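To the structural biology subgroup,

Please find below the input and predicted structure for GtrA family protein, which we are adding to the shared reference set this quarter. The sequence is reproduced verbatim from the submission form. If anyone notices a discrepancy with their own records, reply to this email rather than editing the shared folder directly, so we keep one authoritative version.
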Amino acid sequence: MGRGSSGLHTAPPAPRSAVRQRFDRLVREVAKFGAVGGAGLLVNLLVFNLVRHVTDLQVVRASVIATVVAIIFNYLGFRYFTYRDRDKGRRTKELGLFLLFSVVGLVIENGVLYAATYGFGWDSPLQSNIFKFLGIGIATLFRFWSYRTWVFRALPSEEPVAGAESFLETPRRGARGTEKPEKPRVRVG
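Predicted structure (tokenized):
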């Protein structure tokens, strides 16, 4: 009956502040984004190394192929896991924006690899993987910001609409310090 082992009445936990709730949602979003992104990173690096191993393609071309495969993998993960609760009403626009920002991320990612390979001559398999990984990291920061801001937009929050009665009620103290609404008193005469 709401009594602890000491027989005292325990108060319910205080509701979390709006700032704390927003922070908690952001932490969950970053964790989900990281899970999909981590799996996408593995797909990207595995495909990159597989293409380099079985073909004679140049480093950046192999990287572009791997990035495209990872983009497809990531879209499915983001749409159906990370941002599954977001607005799904404009899929064509969402996919178009996702591809646009993914191409910018592809340019960032592979631009780092290109600069390392052709600008500095760092093209050993280990060096290529290091700069591919670095490019993915830089592009990921851009992708996180752009996807959450422009692609997978949050639905407008539904705020409860107070009825007219709630504006007329004034709180008064009841038993045990709880507030009970008081009906307005109408003066007659």
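Summary notes: Confidence is low (pLDDT under 50) at residues 160-169. The helical segments are 18-54, 59-82, 91-119, 125-151, 164-168.

Regards,
Lab coordination
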